[in-house]
């Protein structure tokens, strides 16, 4: 079956309106393309929650800083189209940047709470860009549900918070992280890793597992975090952050007295990897 590829907003709106008039539920899976199994797992879950699944592919310029990889981010719509064949997808929505952000575009979204710290330390522009594009995609597609990966845990919490705060009529669903057999979280950026870096990369997940175990035992958090940072540096990572946070609000914590999440970002060469896992209940 051929998947409709939609670039025009009026076509997206009329397609979705026809589904809705038929009483069908609509799920949106926003992506930046370079689709891998992690994305396809979101699509599969979306197919369980709605009769119609829209996958958007849009490399969003407003979430990249001038120093980041916007220019070299992998783009291949034909490959993405092929990856989606045989999945629950009903339409692939691929707008252009000119269409998303017209010449006099002047609006920003300002975020606090879960958007503070972590990714924002080195990428202060990032969540404002994500919030903007996600809000626009919600307004364009009008989905009943939208799915986001736990791989980008802070992003998931920022979007959940924003959706509640702004009364956006969309249910946000988080989907567990899809990993390689050795634990490395699937990411479109993994293609940047050299062979040697790829061999080291799973240690990020290992360090988070060790940290989560130690925190779950009730050991002091600050010492456990310092140990994880050391382990990563010894493996060759340039560590951005390793943190233990409240799993819901992402507030800093001092004790294991509620559900917690460990989160980290670290560079291998020029490639920045992020990962996170839940701290098991004590
Ligand atoms: P991206 O194309 O990187 O913007 O990701 C699009 C969506 O896929 C986001 O909601 C990500 O959190 C999600 N995603 C990316 N990698 C994974 C993964 N390994 N497992 C689960 N979800 C993922």
From TrEMBL:
Residue sites binding beta-alanine per the record: 63
Reaction catalyzed: (R)-pantoate + beta-alanine + ATP = (R)-pantothenate + AMP + diphosphate + H(+)
Pathway(s) served: Cofactor biosynthesis; (R)-pantothenate biosynthesis; (R)-pantothenate from (R)-pantoate and beta-alanine: step 1/1
Chief location: cytoplasm
GO biological process, alphabetically ordered: pantothenate biosynthetic process
The entry's keywords: ATP-binding, Cytoplasm, Ligase, Nucleotide-binding, Pantothenate biosynthesis
Gene Ontology CC: cytosol
Subcellular location(s) of the protein: Cytoplasm
EC primary class: ligase
Binding site for ATP: 32-39, 149-152, 186-189
Superkingdom classification of source: Bacteria
InterPro entries, A to Z: Cyt_trans-like (IPR004821), Pantoate_ligase (IPR003721), Pantoate_ligase_C (IPR042176), Rossmann-like_a/b/a_fold (IPR014729)
Gene3D superfamilies: HUPs, Pantoate-beta-alanine ligase, C-terminal domain
Single GO molecular function: ATP binding
Residues binding (R)-pantoate: 63, 155
Residues at the active site: 39 (proton donor)
PANTHER family recorded: CYTIDYLATE KINASE/PANTOATE-BETA-ALANINE LIGASE (PTHR21299), PANTOATE--BETA-ALANINE LIGASE (PTHR21299:SF1)
Protein family (similarity comment): Belongs to the pantothenate synthetase family.
Record text on subunit structure and interactions: Homodimer.
Described purpose of this protein according to its UniProt entry: Catalyzes the condensation of pantoate with beta-alanine in an ATP-dependent reaction via a pantoyl-adenylate intermediate.
More about this protein: The reaction proceeds by a bi uni uni bi ping pong mechanism.
Full protein name: Pantothenate synthetase
The organism of origin for this protein: Agaricicola taiwanensis
Lineage: Bacteria, Pseudomonadati, Pseudomonadota, Alphaproteobacteria, Rhodobacterales
């Amino acid at each position: 079956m051929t998947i409709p590829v939609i670039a025009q907003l009026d076509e997206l709106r009329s397609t979705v309106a026809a589904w809705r008039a038929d009483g069908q539920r609509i799920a949106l899976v926003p992506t930046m393309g370079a689709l891998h199994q992690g994305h396809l797992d979101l699509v599969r879950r979306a197919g369980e929650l709605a009769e119609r699944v829209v996958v958007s592919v849009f490399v969003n310029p407003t979430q990249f800083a001038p120093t980041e990889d916007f220019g070299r981010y992998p783009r291949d719509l034909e490959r993405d189209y092929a990856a989606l064949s045989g999945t629950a997808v009903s339409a692939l929505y691929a707008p252009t940047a000119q269409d998303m952000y017209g010449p006099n575009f002047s609006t920003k979204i300002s975020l606090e709470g879960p958007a503070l710290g972590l990714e924002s330390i080195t990428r202060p522009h990032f969540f404002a860009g994500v919030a903007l594009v996600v809000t626009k995609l919600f307004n364009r597609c009008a989905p009943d549900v939208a799915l986001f990966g736990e791989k980008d845990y802070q992003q998931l919490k920022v979007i959940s918070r924003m959706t509640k705060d702004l009364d956006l009529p969309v249910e946000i669903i988080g989907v567990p992280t899809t990993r390689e057999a050795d634990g490395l979280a699937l990411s479109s950026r993994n293609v940047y890793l050299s062979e040697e870096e790829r061999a080291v990369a799973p240690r990020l997940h290992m360090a988070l597992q060790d940290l989560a175990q130690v925190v779950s035992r009730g050991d002091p958090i600050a010492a456990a975090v310092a140990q994880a940072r050391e382990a990563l540096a010894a493996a060759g990572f340039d560590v951005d952050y390793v943190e233990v946070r409240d799993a819901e609000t992402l507030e800093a914590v001092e004790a294991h007295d509620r559900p917690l999440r460990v989160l980290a970002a670290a560079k291998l060469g020029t490639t920045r990897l992020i990962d996170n896992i839940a701290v098991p209940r004590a």
